[in-house]
Amino acid sequence: MIEKGKSVLLFLLVVISLYQSYLLAYSKPFMEAKVKTELNYVKTEPLGTNLQVKDLIFPEQLVVHLGADKHTVFYPSTVPYYNLILDKLMSREFKSLQRDSVNAVDWDLIARENQGVELRFGRAIPFELLQRVFKIDGDFLFSRDSIDRIWIYTSKLRDEVRTYFFSSDGRNVYEAQKADLTVGDVEGYVGFGQYWDPYVVYGEDLYIPEKPITRMLSMEVSYDRYTAEQMQDNLFTDASSVRTIPNGTFYNDAKRAMKIEQGGTWLSYTDPVAPTEGADELAENVIAAVDFVNQHGGWNARHALIQGTDPVKENANIRFQQYYRDTPVVPGATMNFGYIQMTLQRGLITSYARSLVLLDQEVSNKKVRKLPAGSELRALLKNVELSGGNIEALFPAFRPEIKENAISLVPVWAIRLTGGEVKIAADSASIEGAAK
């Protein structure tokens, strides 16, 4: 009888043990572990969207040459023409690239006399990354170079299409000897610009409108923002080791530090790494920067890879410009807003700064605004140049103004200097009685 009882007890213990093993293997614990280490750290749920490198590389503007020294410019906000041209070019193939000196062709003459389109990027794009956007032959000798412009035009002399990729060093161009583009294709691109705003050359390489731009709207946008707690969870692997100073804006552990500024709208984060040998590779750092944002909070809006603000260490400094309704958001000198900026060392992030603002899609208080053009815009640009600025790009943008319950977005002309600094060159003016 005793032996039988022992057998039943042993059987029950085995059943209980098996049941407990099942619970440990397949059920979720009631409470999360409060201490996370580098070994058991679990990636937190993204706050924003995940993007691929190709999503962040697109032309800042398309300069369309109509022939007879007539030109126009399409920006990402120029819908649908910008998208129609870019989508068509992304489906074409560019093969057998051959290098030549940029001085081998009179580009001013080409721009005046030939029809074509220039794709101008906000910064130099390594071929390795450009190949993620366009179908470019990767098996050629100079594939480690970087490109800041693509120019496609029809040759009047030989009735053919010529395609050139401009090296960012300003010395070389690469011609695609084989490109599945026809004269009809280029004429179609040019046709989109026949009835658009006329632009004229300013200086050596800029194009400005002859007539005021009257299609942009100012608006008010409600917003939310990522909290300090959300960013802390995404940036620190061990929550128990994080210390907070009394005012609750500075967080650090034994290595990393995070600061929340501007009333909770801006984040600065540092993670020092030991110095390493070797030069920084731009492609490597861009890929690492995109992965880092994907893994530590995600993207709060559309962004574009643009020129960094340190020309000496440009491969180590990565900046992504925020867009709203396909228009870049450019803050003034007294406020950080509308971009993500990172410093890297051989693919390792050492500093990370970003806007925490989440702009809603719904807008209110829309008003039509007018951007200056012609002689008025020339005078404003001349003032910038007289103060020592060398302008490399001009584009319409939004200037944000943070209010209590909304952010006001006002159209402006923005410029980027050769060192990477972005400034506001001209504000828009109101048009009486105009609203949409």
Compact description:
With 436 residues, the protein is α+β, with helices and mostly antiparallel strands.
Give the SSE layout.
Layout: H1 2-26, E1 61-67, E2 70-74, H2 81-90, E3 93-101, H3 107-113, E4 115-126, H4 127-130, E5 135-136, E6 146-155, E7 160-167, E8 172-179, H5 183-192, E9 199-202, E10 206-209, E11 213-225, H6 228-235, E12 243-244, E13 250-252, E14 257-261, E15 266-270, H7 282-295, E16 302-306, E17 317-324, E18 327-328, E19 339-345, E20 348-355, E21 357-371, H8 374-386, E22 391-402, E23 407-417, E24 422-427, E25 429-430
Parallel strand pairs: 3-5
Antiparallel strand pairs: 1-2, 1-4, 3-8, 4-6, 6-7, 7-8, 9-10, 11-21, 11-23, 12-13, 13-14, 14-15, 15-20, 16-17, 17-18, 17-19, 19-20, 21-25, 22-23, 23-24
Domain Regulatory protein YycH: 3-424
Protein name: YycH family regulatory protein
Pfam families: YycH (PF07435)
Output the keywords.
alpha+beta, YycH family regulatory protein, 436 residues, YycH, YycH/YycI_2, nine-stranded antiparallel sheet, disordered N terminus, eight-stranded mixed sheet, 40% strand, globular
* Global Rg: 27 Å
Structural class: alpha+beta
Summed over residues and divided by their number, the pLDDT gives a mean of 86
Record field, number of beta strands: 25
Shape: globular
Tally of contiguous helical segments: 8
Query: Main sheet, how many strands, which sense, barrel?
Result: 9 strands, antiparallel
For the record, give the distance between the C-alpha atoms at the N and C termini, rounded to a whole number: 92 Å
Helix percentage: 10-25%
